[in-house]
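Input structure tokens:
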């Protein structure tokens, strides 16, 4: 086993009889921010789901922080690895106050220190303490995504899986959330594996990227190759051209 934060080896993932991710191998180093890019349906989200235990049918190796993932549900995994979704409503219960939403992971895992941790995480994501007693529908999209990020951090995971974390937000709010993710990574030494369609987001937040097509990784490159238009695979270059070249930090 490697000492990578995320280690994927010969990962193949199926829905029923259909394999949608084929033989994917890569490592994400401790503290690295790594992007999965590629056209819709190329298998990016499915990889995040398999790592977080939401896609049961896979073969190969998945290890997070040196711990191989099995096929059955594994609650201890949640303490090392959490997922943030595109739509924060997915992880927030509409009728539960933010305070309850945030404390829930601690209750599930039998961990104490509830109030202090809720306050700390609200502060970490830049929300005033009065948000504790509000409900998801009373928040803006950006505020809800801040809460979803705070919730993902409640168990002090080392790794965040980010599935298009800003694409449901207005452009000005996207920039705020990207700045927040950058700050949290710096402050907490987090590792990110992020799915995005947005190459400027990759150039702003990531160190490396894997380009996926039809369920396979066609290229892994450093973000400098992206910024300077030096991606080598023809399909990667197509994606780059379609993005209008480079690429203004969000
Ligand atoms: N629950 C499911 N059941 C059956 N097939 C699925 C399921 N979820 C995804 N798929 C299929 O798996 C393939 C990969 O989907 P996936 O969502 O991982 O792609 P993606 O690259 O993340 O796309 P997008 O950028 O649109 O989110 C697609 O062909 C999709 O139709």
């Amino acid at each position: 086993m490697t000492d990578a934060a995320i280690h994927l080896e010969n990962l193949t993932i199926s829905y029923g009889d259909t394999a949608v991710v084929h033989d994917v191998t890569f490592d994400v180093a401790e503290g690295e921010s790594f992007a999965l890019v590629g056209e819709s349906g190329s298998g990016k989200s499915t990889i995040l789901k398999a790592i977080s235990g939401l896609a049961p049918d896979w073969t190969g190796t998945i290890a997070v922080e040196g711990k191989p993932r099995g096929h059955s549900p594994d609650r201890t995994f949640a303490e090392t690895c959490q997922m943030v979704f595109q739509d924060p409503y997915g992880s927030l219960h509409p009728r539960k106050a933010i305070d309850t939403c945030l404390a829930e992971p601690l209750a599930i895992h039998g961990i104490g220190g509830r109030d202090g941790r809720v306050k700390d995480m609200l502060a970490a994501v830049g929300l005033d303490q009065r948000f504790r007693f509000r409900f998801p529908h009373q928040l803006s999209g950006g505020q809800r995504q801040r809460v979803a990020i705070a919730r993902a951090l409640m168990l002090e995971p080392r790794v965040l899986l980010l599935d298009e974390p800003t694409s449901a937000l207005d452009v000005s709010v996207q920039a705020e959330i990207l700045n927040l993710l950058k700050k949290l990574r710096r402050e907490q030494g987090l590792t990110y594996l992020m799915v995005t369609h947005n190459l400027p987001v990759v150039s702003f937040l990531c160190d490396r990227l894997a380009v996926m097509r039809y369920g396979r990784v066609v290229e892994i490159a450093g973000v400098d190759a992206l910024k300077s238009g030096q991606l080598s695979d023809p399909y990667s270059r197509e994606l780059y051209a379609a993005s209008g070249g480079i690429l203004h930090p969000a």
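The helical segments are 44-52, 98-108, 114-124, 141-153, 171-188, 199-205, 223-227, 234-242. Residues 1-80+157-250 form a domain with the Rossmann fold fold (CATH 3.40.50.300).
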